[in-house]
Amino acid sequence: MTEFLLVATAHFLALLSPGPDFFLILRTALKHGFASGVSVSFGIAVSNGFYIILALAGFNLMQQNLLLLWALKIGGATYLIYIGYHFIKSSGHAFNEQNEQAPTQEIIYQKVLFKNMLMGFNSGLLNPKNALFYLSLFSLLVSPETSSLQQSFYGVWMFLAVFFWDCLVAASVGNPLSQRWLSRILAPLEKLAGMALVSMGIGLLWAGSR
After folding, report:
1. What distances in angstroms separate CA 184 from CA 95, 176, 180, one per listed residue?
2. Could you tell me which residue, 203 or 124, shows the higher pLDDT?
3. Taking a C-beta distance cutoff of 8 angstroms, is the pair 31, 94 a contact?
4. Where are the domains of the chain?
5. Cβ atoms within 10 A of the Cβ of 84, count?
6. 121: which residues sit within 8 A by CB, 6+ positions away?
């Protein structure tokens, strides 16, 4: 029980730290509504689940293969700069894709949600901190004597924690009341988030080149 509390606490504290995923959810939910924010959140949770499975399986490939780790950092940094650039050049006009739509637009709406989910998955997968965090968490806090069933429970807990916490973030800004209030500052908020993401990407590129 003590081990689980340590793992759950460390994981939740990491969730509280704003990163690329947080900015992506914030912007998507504010601009496109709660459903789009949830689809991004699910994609992020799936990418976290991928790294959790790797950690549970005992793969230390990331730590042993420096070339793979370097490629992950460069790819993640490039993606952060890419989405940051699109945040900065955005028009800043909020709109809600959950408004009433004609039946012929339903397929388009589903494609948009899938695109958002894929964007969230890429954001989580290309963030090298996620891979290193889960590998470190399981290697430092989880005892070798802990059963596979218990470790699987930890993994499911963390997957659900990521998803529901991100959904909470999306709900806080994705509802019509928040959208009306925050739409006044959407343009500068997007640009600030974009500059933060670009800065993170440049920082990763700088660290990866050393």
Report:
1. 12, 13, 7
2. 124
3. yes
4. 2-209
5. 23
6. 43, 44, 46, 47
